[in-house]
Amino acid sequence: MAAVGRRQTGRISGISLTSSLLLFAFCLCAAPCSMAQAGKAAVDFYSWLASEQGQKASLTQMKQQCDNVSDAGKNLDCSVSVFARLFEAKAANQIPDYYLAIKRRHAQSIAKDPELNALFSMFGSESIAALRSVGDFSVTRARHREVLAIHPYARDGDVTDEVFPYIDVNAANGVSSRFIVDTGAPQTRVNIDTAKRMGITLLSDSHYGYSTFYGERGLSAKLGIFKSLKIGGSEFRNVLVFVSDRDNLLGLDLIGKLGRLKVTKKTLVLNAEPPERCDSRITYARMDINQRLTVAAHLDRQATLAIIDTGNVDYLTSSAPGRQPISVVNNPLYQTYRGELSLSGHSRLITYKYYPDFTIPPSMLRGKYVPSILFGWRAFDDYELNLDLDADRSCFNRI
Q: Would residue 317 count as lying in a domain?
C-alpha cells in the first residue's frame, strides 16, 4: 500500500503503520482472511459500516451501532473497529475512555489473545492522561489556490538515486521539515529526531509494535501529538501521529483532509481547479485505519486494482509474478517482468517489478479478491493525481 522495502536497501517503507499486532484488530492483514473473518463475526455491524449510511457515520453513530451488538465476541470485533476509526479521525482525546472501556468489558478475551493483549497494552497511565488533555483535532484549510513545491530530496544539496515527493511542513515552534507525500501510507509518521525539533509531545509510555506488508518484522513506534502542523496555508491542530526511527511521511490520513488537491511531479496544488477530464476514476476505500486510493486496471489482460502510492519508488509494482521475466543479475530483492498494462482504455507495454518476499494486499473486485498493483512515484512522469475526497471526485489522469 505504500513504498516497497526499506530505506536502507534503496526503497522506503511507507506502509510502516500496518502492525503485526493489529492484523486481527484493524483488519489490516496482507491476505483476505481478517476482513472476511470480521465480516462473518459481526455481519450486521460491518454490513452497516459498508453501506452509504455507515460510510458517512460519525464516531458517535459508530459507537451506538456497536453498542447494539449484544454478542460478546461480535461486540469485541466492532469495538476494536471503532477504536481504530478514532485513530483515523485523529480524535486523540476520545481514545482513552473508549480504550479503557473495551479493556474492562472484554478483559478475559483480551488476556487470552496475544495480539489483542498487545493492542490493549499500547498506552500507559502517562499516555492516557496526556491524551485526555489534548484539545479537539481541527483542520483549517487554505482559502485560496496555492502551489507548493515538491522537492526530490529530504534536504537541499542531497544527491541520491532515490527521488521521492517531499514537501515542507511547519510546526507550531517555527521549525520546518520535509515529509514524503505518501498516498500509500494510511497514517502520518514522524522521525524521532524530527519530532524533537518540531516540538511534538511524545507519549513516552506508549508502544506500537508493527510489521509491514513488505517483509519487515519486529518494528517499534510510539505516538505523539503535534500542537500545530502547517502545509502551506492549511493547518492541522492537535494531530495524533506515529513516531519512529524511519522517514517522515505525510500519510493519507492528513492528505485526504486537505481538500481539493492536484499532485504533479513538481507541485502540490491546494484548492486546485477541478480537472477538465477524468481518465481513471479513483475509489477511496477505508477499513478502520487502512485507507487507500485505487483505480481499475488490467495487467497482462487480467483485471486488477491499482493502488496510487506516491511513496513507492517504482513506476509499477505487482503483487504477483508476470509471464515474461527479464533476467536481472545478482538482484535477490526483486524480479523484473515485461507485460501489458491497460488503464482507462489505453494499453501499453511496460516493465514492472515483483518482490517475492513482500505481500501487497489483495483488493475486492466484483466481489472477488484479486491481486493488486502499485503505481509509484515514477509513474508521475506520465500521470497526475486530482484528489477531492469530500466531493468524491478524484481522478488519475494522463499528462
A: yes
**Which of 202, 232, 260 is the last residue before a domain boundary?**
260
The range of the structural domain enclosing residue 182 comes to: 138-260
Distance of CA 372 to the CA centre of its chain: 15
Please state the rounded mean pLDDT for residues 66-83.
94
Q: Where are the alpha helices (DSSP H) in the chain?
A: 33-41, 43-50, 52-55, 59-67, 72-88, 95-105, 107-112, 114-119, 125-132, 192-197, 252-255
238 lies in the same domain as 160: yes
Give the CA radius of gyration of the chain: 20
Helix, coil or strand: residue 214: coil
Q: Are residues 116 and 145 in the same domain?
A: no
Whether 30 is covered by a domain: the verdict is no
Segment 165-198, tens digit of pLDDT: 999 999 999 999 999 999 999 899 999 999 999 9
- Which one, of 265, 188, 263, 272, lies nearest residue 229 by Cα? 188
Question: Quick one: which of 162, 187, 180, 191 has its CA closest to 18?
Answer: 187
Mean model confidence pLDDT for the chain: 86
Q: In this structure, is residue 11 part of a structural domain?
A: no
Return all residues near 390 (Cβ < 8 A) that are at least 6 apart: 259, 260
Q: 113-152: per-residue pLDDT in tens?
A: 998 998 999 999 999 999 999 999 999 999 999 999 999 9
SS3 125: helix
Task: Report yes or no on 385 lying in a domain.
Answer: yes
**Angle 72-88/43-50 helices, nearest 10 degrees?**
30
With CA atoms as reference, report the closest residue to 179 among 130, 222, 226.
226
Residue 201 phi, psi dihedral angles, 5° rounding = -80, 110
User: Residue 13 and residue 17: Cα distance in Å, rounded?
Assistant: 9
Q: How far is CA 378 from CA 164, 165, 225, 274, 295, in A?
A: 9, 10, 32, 24, 17
Domain harbouring 160, CATH code: 2.40.70.10
Higher pLDDT pick, 93 / 26: 93
Dihedrals phi, psi of 325, to nearest 5 degrees: -70, 145
Q: Is residue 179 domain-shared with residue 244, that is, in the same domain?
A: yes
Domain count, the chain: 3
Distances (CA, A) of 152 to 92, 149, 258: 32, 10, 21
Predicted TM-score of the model (pTM): 0.87
